[in-house]
Amino acid sequence: MKIERLSQDKIRIFLTFDDLLERGIQKEDMWREIPKVHELFSEMMDQAYSELGFDASGPLAVEVFALPAQGMVVIVTRGKMNGQSDERATDDEDTEDEIYEMEVTMEQSDIVMYSFRDFEDVISVCKQLQAASLTEDGRLYSYNGKWILALEPALIDSSRHNAVIALLAEYGEATSVTYAMLEEYGKVIMPSDAVREICTHFYN
Question: What is the pTM (predicted TM-score) of this model?
Answer without folding.
Answer: 0.58
